[in-house]
Amino acid sequence: MTPVQRKDHLDTLAITLLVVCCAFWGFQQILIKFASREIPPLWQASIRMWGATALLWLWCQFRGVPLFQRDGTLKGGLLVGLLFAGEFVFIYLGLTHTSASRLTVFLYTSPFWVALLLPRFVHAEKLRRIQWIGLTLAFAAVAVAFSEAFLHGSSPGQWIGDTMGLAAGMLWGLTTLAIRTTRIATAAAEKSLFYQLGVTAAVTPLLSIALGESWGFGYSAMAWGSVFLQTAVGAFASYLTWMWMLRHYPATQMSTFTFLTPLFALIFGVVLLGEPLTLQLVLALLGVAAGIVLVSRKG
């Protein structure tokens, strides 16, 4: 197998792809929340993952990417798949208890898990002092952006959703760690994502049944449109792009870019929901931009 040519910094292509992915991921929480008005959360996740798995299989057939040959990745693939499944179970269930903005800020604590744990296994991922400053600055900026929400009284059960958001963030970070430290690191991006989508597609319907969710297909065009975007753009295209970048670029630097996602979520709130553009949001945008510049600096 030809060794993967890894880069030690994010180039223009990587930065462009990351910004586009983060923009959609910021919109994705709104899509999930919207569709949950009609579609039970884990049934919605099941439809999404089934569709994304089918799209990925067709893509691999077209590209000639082998998915089922023995290459020593099964054990690591199942681990990555279970971590990925757990993350999305917590996201979908958490959004039934708390707002999309609050869950998003807790979800995007994932870079801390990557930055803290990955250098213990991959020495090349070790962050320098200036990059730690950038990471801390970016997270502080996100906290500033959501400070107004934290000052309001919480609704009943909101702490459950917040806790699920934190758990999802931890599992996302551990998924990134597992991808870089197991045999999955040598697999094609398509196969790595196939493990994640396939395991999640198997787990979510079982949990949906266990929770007594009602299944059906008689939903509105808006709900189906939401699920389609989650499936084709979110679970298929954007995650395939993320898997490819994990094989070619430093995961710690990539993870810091994900701090853009909750800020995009706030921007979509301003544009789509008419929410005010506050001073906190402006400061957060500047802080995240500065943090990204520091973390992305070459050695």
Automatic annotation (TrEMBL):
The EamA domain, residue ranges: 13-145, 160-296
Chain ranges passing through the membrane: 12-30, 42-60, 72-93, 99-118, 130-151, 163-181, 193-211, 217-242, 254-273, 279-296
Localization, UniProt: Cell membrane
Gene3D superfamilies: 1.10.3730.20
Stretches assigned to coiled coil: none
Membrane topology: Multi-pass membrane protein
SUPFAM superfamilies xrefs: Multidrug resistance efflux transporter EmrE
GO cellular component terms, A-Z: plasma membrane
Primary residence: membrane
Keywords: Cell membrane, Membrane, Transmembrane, Transmembrane helix
Descriptive protein name: DMT family transporter
Native organism: Hydrogenophaga aromaticivorans
